């Protein structure tokens, strides 16, 4: 049996219209593909094989009953007006694909309980300071790692092997469980801010609560979480320049643009000075990729669960077959999640211990 919803899922993942997908599958026409997606027709074996080949899954994938998608909470859309519905659908379908596999994998172990404390109505600064304490970091130090700390609080963080202009990340709810999905393409500093921003939505806002105010609050939360104002005030040069801010960037793991905003809030530069710095950033082509290294943090849980189920590595052919994915797709998804060698070990006295612990069914603690 072929489920039309599965065909639509992979088509939307790749941002293809029915006509475009039909062009890649000579055995189908657009009208027949439309009937297949609405469960009014079934493709023959040849067409099913070609559909699988075109979309990176196996023929078995199309016969699996569809699972509910994630409830979009507040997608992080820096250019909301320019993001097409096709792009939004692609992001949600990729997240649905990876999350479905995550749910299957975590049957092998018991993940950490969700320990997010919702703070609706709280100010972003107050909430960020409380979260810092919950994460185990003091108020005056840079966050040496963020993604893994968020996973410690029971948030599912999924890496998606897709790049969509204007969309770096979004958060969602799977029932009562919070999820943050990270798309590819963002440099390390923006990647960290995206995680902090989406975490701010999870803490401060109700599902589907959107708008300029919520986005501004999530930005303020992220800024305070990553660069507490009192601490960054002591670290900030009295006369900020792009060179001095680039050095500060590597310590605090945030963008130069973010530090310019902090300098403006601290009164170290006035409005005209901030505009001048932004223009210099633009003139140097730094709007997308600034100088100054910030490590790209990957989530760990998905790959760790795959290692529990399929051994060190893990065994990609077995993993891919069980997921209903091609091996190429399996490698692409796994690459978005940290191997043991990609994890921080000891930073500023914090023992990450390969970070978040999972418990096997027998309750034996496992270290990452």
Describe the protein's architecture and organization.
The protein has helices at residues 4-13, 18-24, 30-37, 45-55, 85-105, 124-135, 147-152, 188-204, 212-226, 229-235, 242-252, 256-265, 271-283, 301-310, 316-323, 327-334; strands at residues 71-72, 76-77, 156-159, 167-174, 177-182, 346-347, 350-351, 358-359, 365-366. It is α+β, with helices and mostly antiparallel strands. It folds into two domains: 1-66, lambda repressor-like DNA-binding domains (434 Repressor (Amino-terminal Domain)); 68-226 and 297-368, no CATH class. Strands 1, 2, 3, 4 and 5 form a five-stranded mixed β-sheet that branches. The chain has a two-stranded antiparallel sheet with strand order 6-7. Strands 8-9 form a two-stranded antiparallel ribbon. Helix 1 (4-13) crosses helix 5, helix 6 (124-135) packs across helix 9 (212-226) and helix 12 (256-265) runs antiparallel to helix 13 (271-283). The two termini are 39 Å apart. The model is unreliable at 346-368 (pLDDT under 50).
List keywords for this structure.
single chain, 368 residues, alpha+beta, 434 Repressor (Amino-terminal Domain), 2 domains, 5-stranded mixed beta sheet, 9 strands, elongated
């Amino acid at each position: 049996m072929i489920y039309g919803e599965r065909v639509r899922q992979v088509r939307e993942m790749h941002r293809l219209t029915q006509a475009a997908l039909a062009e890649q599958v000579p055995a189908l026409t657009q009208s027949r593909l439309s009937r297949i997606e609405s469960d009014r027709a079934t493709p023959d074996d040849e067409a099913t094989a070609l559909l699988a080949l075109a979309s990176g899954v196996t023929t078995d994938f199309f016969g699996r009953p569809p699972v509910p998608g994630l409830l979009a909470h507040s997608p992080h859309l820096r250019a909301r007006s320019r993001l097409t519905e096709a792009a939004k659908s692609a992001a949600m379908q990729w997240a649905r694909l990876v999350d479905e596999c995550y749910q299957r994998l975590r049957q092998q172990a018991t993940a950490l309980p969700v320990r997010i404390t919702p703070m609706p109505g709280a100010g972003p600064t107050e909430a960020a300071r409380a979260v810092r304490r919950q994460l185990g970091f003091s108020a005056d130090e840079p966050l040496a790692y963020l993604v893994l700390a968020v996973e410690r609080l029971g948030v599912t963080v999924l890496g998606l092997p897709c790049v969509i202009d204007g969309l770096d990340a979004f958060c969602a709810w799977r029932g009562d469980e919070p999820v943050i999905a990270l798309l590819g393409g963002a440099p390390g500093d923006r990647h960290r801010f995206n995680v902090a921003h989406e975490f701010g939505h999870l803490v401060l806002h109700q599902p589907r609560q959107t708008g300029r105010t919520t986005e501004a609050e999530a930005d303020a939360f992220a800024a305070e979480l990553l660069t507490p104002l009192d601490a960054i005030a002591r670290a900030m040069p009295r006369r900020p320049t792009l060179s001095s801010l680039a050095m500060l960037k590597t310590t605090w793991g945030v963008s130069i643009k973010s530090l310019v905003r902090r300098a403006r809030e601290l009164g170290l530069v006035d409005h005209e000075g901030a505009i001048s710095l932004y223009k210099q950033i633009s003139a140097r082509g730094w709007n997308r990729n600034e100088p100054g290294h910030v490590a790209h943090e990957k989530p760990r849980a998905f790959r760790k669960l795959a290692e529990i189920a399929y051994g060190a590595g893990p065994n990609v052919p077995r993993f891919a077959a069980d997921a209903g994915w091609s091996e190429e797709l399996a490698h692409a998804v796994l690459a978005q999640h940290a191997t043991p060698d990609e994890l921080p070990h000891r930073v500023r006295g914090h023992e990450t211990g390969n970070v978040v612990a999972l418990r096997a069914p027998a309750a034996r603690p496992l270290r990452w």
